[in-house]
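To illustrate the input format used throughout this study, we show a single complete record. The first block contains the structure-token representation of the backbone; no residue identities are included at this stage. The design step must infer an amino acid for every position from geometry alone.
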């Protein structure tokens, strides 16, 4: 009889312990599920961030590729498209560096007169005659696509089609022989460049984009450019060369 009385509390204790163990297991399982959910959320966030970064990298690469394509195209045609805040007016003149600050809105080229290639060739002739060896930095500063010689060159905002179709120095028309000859007399080269455009624009049978108002502005700009002598061009180039050497000495 005493044995039977003692067995009841023992069974109750066993049942209570089992319930506690079951409860602990449920809590542990919930904690594990919550942890797994948190891990999944963290991984999803990381994946989303990685996808966002990849998309931005792709956009940056595309923009860089487009910019490079424009630069390569500019190198072939002797022009560079640079987007500024203000708009260029047809026939507007100034240094290439000044006109760079305005947008051609894909309508106008900043046409170097005389050509950038002729100006650079004249500078190279001067450097060779002086027996100067430029540092890599000075070379780039002077002759880069957007270097000092290019920026200082006189330009006129010209409709793209007129520049392409009628300029004597556009693309393949500016042969090495022509560049070399133009470099020997930059004033004469400028006159030839201006005459080619003006004669085409004055010809009633010539297909053109330049309207009468633009042509009037173009001719006024042309008159200013024609007054600059070959000696004055050389003086300007000497200053640019001197500055490039000073700012980029050989090591």
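Output of the design step:
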């Amino acid at each position: 009889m005493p044995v039977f009385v003692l067995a009841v509390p023992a069974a109750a204790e066993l049942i209570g312990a089992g319930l506690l163990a079951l409860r602990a297991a449920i809590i542990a399982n919930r904690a594990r599920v919550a942890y797994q959910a948190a891990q999944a959320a963290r991984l999803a966030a990381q994946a989303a961030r990685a996808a966002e970064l990849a998309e931005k990298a792709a956009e940056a690469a595309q923009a860089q590729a487009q910019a490079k394509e424009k630069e390569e195209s500019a190198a072939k045609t002797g022009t560079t498209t640079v987007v500024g805040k203000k708009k260029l007016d047809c026939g507007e003149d100034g240094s290439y560096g000044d006109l760079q600050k305005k947008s051609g809105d894909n309508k106008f080229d900043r046409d170097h007169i005389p050509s950038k290639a002729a100006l650079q060739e004249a500078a190279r002739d001067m450097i060779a005659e002086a027996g100067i060896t430029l540092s890599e930095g000075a070379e780039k500063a002077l002759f880069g696509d957007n270097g000092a010689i290019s920026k200082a060159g006189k330009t006129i905002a010209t409709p793209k089609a007129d520049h392409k179709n009628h300029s004597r120095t556009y693309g393949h028309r500016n042969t090495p022989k022509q560049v070399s000859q133009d470099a020997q007399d930059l004033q004469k080269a400028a006159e030839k460049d201006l005459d080619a455009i003006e004669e085409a624009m004055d010809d009633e049978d010539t297909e053109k984009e330049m309207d009468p108002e633009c042509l009037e502005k173009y001719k006024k700009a042309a008159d200013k450019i024609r007054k600059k002598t070959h000696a004055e061009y050389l003086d300007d180039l000497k200053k640019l060369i001197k500055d490039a050497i000073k700012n980029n000495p050989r090591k």
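Structural context for interpreting the output: Residues 80-84 have pLDDT under 50 and may be disordered. The CA atoms of residues 18 and 108 lie 88 Å apart.
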